[in-house]
Design goal:
Order of helices and strands: EHEHEEHEHEEHEHEHEH
Largest sheet: 7 strands, parallel
Number of helices: 8
Radius of gyration: 18 Å
Distance between the termini: 18 Å
Shape: globular
Strand content: 15-25%
Mean pLDDT: 94
């Protein structure tokens, strides 16, 4: 697990965008795993700017999103399909036919979960998976107690997650309490995982992810088993880590190594 500590949220977004830009430059037909939530928005804005400036292209790219609310149609303003269209897909040169979000209004959700897994495999697997993290350590909608070997499935949301997401729904608007989410096992099969976190509210979850035990109580701790996971955080999110200077030193040495290897 590589931990990158940067000054602020803008630097986190730029660093994350660099990873995706480099991936698309090296492999234009990459399969990207994408995430919703407030933290990825800044990264998406950076990628949009680079796309519109001709610095990066999504024309040959295929994408799979982590999750979707169960019971919401694609065109619902709170659906994650709508979120992705508004915050990324409508503004870059990606073919929306190549963008996949779990179908929240599927007639047979369990069958849809199995099909989603098959579609990822048929696409060749995910090259780079973007992740955010909840205050309780969830990734995707894999809440605490989720199996570390879980696959795409229907998941009940915890009260904490429902409360955190309630700000996106009006007082009289229906808020789903079920979701379809990639499983932790699915996420761990990505070739590279990139987790972004900013702000003090995420500090406890980041400490548990990076320095805590591998446990279903903190689903993101499963990234300790990933062969190429990058945790990109600002100083506020890193505030509870034991020795931030250690992580900064390691990142400096990693950069030197990459320069030596010509990456």
């Amino acid at each position: 697990m590589k931990v990158v500590i940067l000054k602020d949220a803008a630097a986190v977004a730029a660093y994350g965008a660099d990873i995706f830009s480099k991936q698309l430059a090296q492999k234009p037909d990459s399969v990207l795993g994408l995430a919703t939530g407030s933290t990825p928005v800044a990264l998406y804005k950076e990628l949009i700017a680079r796309n519109q400036a001709g610095k990066v292209s999504f024309a040959k790219t295929r994408s799979f999103n982590l999750d979707e609310y169960l019971g919401l149609a694609d065109d619902h303003p709170q659906s994650y399909r709508h979120f992705m269209n508004v915050n990324l897909f409508d503004h870059v040169d990606i073919d929306k036919a190549n963008t996949c979000v779990p179908p929240g209004n599927a007639k047979d959700p369990r069958a849809a979960c199995e099909q989603y897994e098959q579609d990822i495999k048929k696409a060749g697997g995910i090259d780079v998976q973007l992740l955010g993290i909840g205050r309780n350590g969830h990734i995707g909608f894999n809440e605490p107690s989720s199996s570390l070997a879980s696959r795409t499935r229907i998941k009940t949301l915890t009260k904490e997650t429902i409360d955190d997401n309630s700000r996106f729904f009006g007082p009289d608007e229906y808020q789903p309490q079920l979701s379809i989410t990639m499983g932790i096992g699915t996420i761990l099969e990505s070739k590279k995982a990139v987790l972004l976190a900013t702000g003090e509210a995420k500090a406890e979850a980041i400490k548990a992810t990076v320095e805590g035990p591998l446990t279903a109580a903190c689903p993101a701790s499963a990234l300790q088993m990933h062969p190429d996971a990058v945790i990109i955080i600002d100083e506020a999110a890193a505030s509870l880590l034991g020795d931030t200077d250690f992580y900064k030193h390691i990142e400096t040495e990693n950069q030197k190594l990459e320069q030596l290897l010509g990456r």
